[in-house]
C-alpha cells in the first residue's frame, strides 16, 4: 500500500480538464503501471536482485517509458500541421543512463545535452548529431568547437558566447542549426530554484532588460545562419498557463525578428520542456496532450507549419517509471514513533532529504517476499542510512507498519533520483535494472547500471594516490612537512 504524501509540488496543473485527466484510457494506463511495479518488486526479491546482500536497487519500467514516448509524439502530432518537422529531445540530465537514451532513441526521441559528459552519453547511446541539442550556460570553446564540428544544434546563451561562435564559424563554417536562448522573464513557480524565467534567471538573454530585445533582433539580422530561437519556461512547480505564456513570448519575438529583417530566417522554435509531474498519486497529470492543447489555444501560429518545433522534456518522460526499493535493515522506535531504517536516503533522494517540502515522495510498503504489505496504517518515519538526523525519505507517514526484512519503495523516482548519486558516507551507487514482461507471465530484468563496488569507491576517492600528500616535496627538494613547522 502507498502512504499519502503531505504537500504538493505542483500548485497548478493547468486548466481543469477533469474529463481528460480521469479518462478511462488514462486511468487504465496508470493502474497497469502500478500493477507492473508491484510485480517487478516481487520478482526482484524472488530472483535475488533484492535481498540482504543487495539491499537497495533502482527499477525502470521499460513498457512505461515506451508509452510516455508514444504519448509525447502523439500529443504534438495532433496539434501540428502535417509535415511539420518536430524533434523531441530528452533532457539527458533527468536520467543520464546510456541504455535509457538508447531506448528513447529507438522510440523516436533525441537528446538535449548540457555538458561534455551528457554529450558523450548521447553519442555512446548511438543518438545522431542531427537529433541532439546542446544547451548550457557555460560552454567552453572546446565544447562549442566539438558541437559545431559534429553538426549538433547549439543555442547560444549570451552575447559573449555568440561572439565565440562567430569566431568558430569564421574559422570553420558549420552546418549545425544555431540559435539564441532568451529569457522571456514571465515569472517563477512554486519552487524558486527551478524557475528559469524570472527577472534574474541565469539562463539566456533577459528580454525585458534595457536594450536586450534590440540586441537580439540585431544579432539575427547580422547572422543569416542563426535560424532557431529557444526559451525554457517550464519545470516542476510551474503552471501550464505560465509555460504557455513563455512560449507565446518566444513565438512573438520570432515573428518580430522575421518581420523586421524581411525574411523567414527563424525557421525553428525550441520551446524547452518542463512539464510538471504529479507526485501525489499514480495518476499522470497534466498529460502531454493537455499541454499541447493549451499551447495550441495560446499560440495557434506556432503550429501552422511555418516553424519547426523542438521540445526538451525530461522529468515527465521518466519520473513515473522508476522506483527505488530498499530493504528495512532495522525497525525501531523513537519518541513513541516507529522508525524504519532503510538503505535508501540522501544518496538516492538528495532533493527530498534536503527539501522535503518541495520534493515529497510517496512510499509503498512491501513485505519480505516483495508483496504489497497489508494491515492497519501506522504513522511512522522512513529513514535512510546516512549519518545525520535529517536523512529521512518520509516523516510521519501513514503506512502498514514496516518491520525488519520488509521493503520500502520510493515511487516516481525515475528522473533526478537514483541516477543522480550523492556520495554521502561513501555510500555505493545502487544497481539499476530495467524490467518488462517475459512473455510467460513473469518479469524479465536487464542490467542498466551495475551496483558500485567498494573497490570502485576507493578508486574514485584517490586510492591510486594514497601516498601523494605524505611524499609531497616543495621545489628544490624541501620536505613540505618540515617547511610548515
Please tell me about this protein's structure.
The chain is of the alpha/beta class and 485 residues long. The chain has 14 helices and 18 strands. The protein has helices at residues 18-21, 24-46, 62-77, 98-106, 116-124, 141-150, 159-171, 212-222, 240-261, 288-298, 315-318, 350-354, 454-460, 480-483; strands at residues 56-61, 86-91, 110-113, 132-134, 153-156, 178-183, 205-206, 226-230, 268-270, 308-311, 322-334, 337-342, 363-366, 377-383, 392-400, 407-410, 431-437, 443-449. Strand 11 (322-334) and strand 12 form a beta hairpin. Helix 3 (62-77) packs parallel to helix 10. The protein is globular, with a radius of gyration of 24 Å. The termini are far apart. 44% of the residues are buried. Mean pLDDT is 90; it is low at 4-22 and 188-195.
Amino acid at each position: 500500500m502507498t502512504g499519502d504524501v503531505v504537500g504538493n509540488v505542483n500548485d497548478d496543473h493547468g486548466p481543469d480538464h477533469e474529463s481528460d485527466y480521469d479518462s478511462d484510457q488514462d486511468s487504465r494506463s496508470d493502474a497497469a503501471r502500478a500493477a507492473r511495479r508491484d510485480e517487478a518488486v516481487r520478482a526482484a526479491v524472488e530472483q535475488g536482485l533484492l535481498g540482504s546482500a543487495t539491499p537497495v536497487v533502482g527499477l525502470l519500467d521499460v513498457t512505461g517509458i515506451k508509452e510516455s514516448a508514444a504519448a509525447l509524439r502523439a500529443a504534438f502530432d495532433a496539434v501540428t500541421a502535417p509535415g511539420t518537422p518536430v524533434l523531441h529531445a530528452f533532457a539527458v540530465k533527468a536520467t543520464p543512463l546510456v541504455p535509457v537514451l538508447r531506448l528513447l532513441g529507438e522510440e523516436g526521441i533525441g537528446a538535449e545535452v548540457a555538458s561534455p559528459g551528457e554529450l558523450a552519453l548521447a553519442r555512446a547511446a548511438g543518438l545522431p548529431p542531427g537529433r541532439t541539442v546542446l544547451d548550457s550556460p557555460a560552454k567552453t570553446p572546446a565544447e562549442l568547437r566539438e558541437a559545431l564540428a559534429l553538426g549538433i544544434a547549439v543555442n547560444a546563451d549570451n552575447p559573449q558566447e555568440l561572439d565565440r561562435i562567430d569566431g568558430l564559424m569564421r574559422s570553420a563554417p558549420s552546418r549545425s542549426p544555431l540559435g539564441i536562448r532568451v529569457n522571456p522573464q514571465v515569472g517563477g513557480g512554486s519552487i524558486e530554484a527551478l524557475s528559469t524565467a524570472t527577472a534574474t534567471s541565469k539562463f539566456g538573454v533577459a528580454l525585458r532588460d534595457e536594450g536586450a530585445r534590440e540586441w537580439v533582433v540585431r544579432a539575427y539580422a547580422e547572422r543569416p545562419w542563426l535560424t532557431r530561437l529557444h526559451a525554457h519556461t517550464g519545470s516542476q512547480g510551474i503552471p501550464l498557463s505560465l509555460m504557455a505564456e513563455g512560449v507565446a513570448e518566444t513565438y512573438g519575438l520570432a515573428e518580430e525578428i522575421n518581420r523586421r529583417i524581411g525574411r523567414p530566417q527563424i525557421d525553428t522554435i525550441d520551446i524547452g520542456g518542463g512539464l510538471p509531474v504529479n507526485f501525489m498519486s499514480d495518476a499522470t497529470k497534466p498529460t502531454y496532450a493537455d499541454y499541447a492543447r493549451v499551447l495550441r489555444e495560446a499560440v495557434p501560429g506556432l503550429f501552422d507549419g511555418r516553424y519547426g518545433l523542438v521540445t526538451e522534456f525530461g522529468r515527465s518522460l521518466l519520473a513515473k517509471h522508476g522506483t527505488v526499493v530498499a530493504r528495512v535493515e532495522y525497525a525501531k522506535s523513537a519518541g513513541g514513533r516507529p522508525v524504519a531504517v532503510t538503505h535508501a536516503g540522501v544518496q538516492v533522494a538528495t532533493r527530498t532529504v534536503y527539501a522535503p517540502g518541495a520534493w515529497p515522495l510517496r512510499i509503498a510498503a512491501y513485505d519480505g517476499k516483495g508483496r504489497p504489505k497489508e494491515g492497519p496504517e501506522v504513522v511512522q518515519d522512513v529513514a535512510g542510512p546516512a549519518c545525520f538526523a535529517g536523512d529521512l525519505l518520509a516523516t510521519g507517514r501513514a503506512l502498514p507498519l514496516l518491520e525488519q526484512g520488509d521493503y520500502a519503495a520510493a515511487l516516481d523516482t525515475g528522473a533526478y533520483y537514483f541516477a543522480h548519486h550523492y556520495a554521502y558516507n561513501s555510500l555505493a551507487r545502487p544497481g539499476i535494472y530495467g524490467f518488462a514482461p517475459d512473455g510467460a507471465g513473469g518479469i524479465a530484468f536487464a542490467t542498466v547500471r551495475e551496483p558500485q563496488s567498494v573497490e570502485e569507491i576507493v578508486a574514485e576517492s584517490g586510492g591510486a594516490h594514497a601516498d601523494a600528500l605524505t611524499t609531497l616535496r616543495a621545489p628544490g627538494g624541501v620536505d613540505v612537512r618540515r617547511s610548515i613547522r
